[in-house]
Design a protein that fits this description.
It is built from 2 helices and no strands. By secondary structure, the chain is an all-alpha fold.
Length: 126
Amino acid sequence: MAENKTPDDDGGAGGLGNLADRATELRNQAVAAAGPLAETAKERAARAAAAAKPMAADAKERALKAAGEAAPKARQGMNALAGNLDKRTGGKYSSRIRSVTGLLGKGLDSIEKRSQHDDPEPPAQA
């Protein structure tokens, strides 16, 4: 009759106990080796973030300026489209068209205001 072994049985040199010990040993080696690499990665990430910050600020400033310059054209196109839609629908959806046009207009106003200020951050909402 075959002998029943449990996972906790060592079973000699090839048993599960030795396998678990070896896995623990390898894990400990990996942790020890990763420590210095993790520290190096943190240092490099900090340097990269510091170098990218001025570039990101410049890109944000340029994008805001471009959006501010495009806002009048966008407003003109929006008004033309709203007029054409209202005309094509025979005035049936005039109130909805005005509502949407008003909301878009407020967004364009915000873009224009933000592009004209030194601090392009939006005002805090209460």
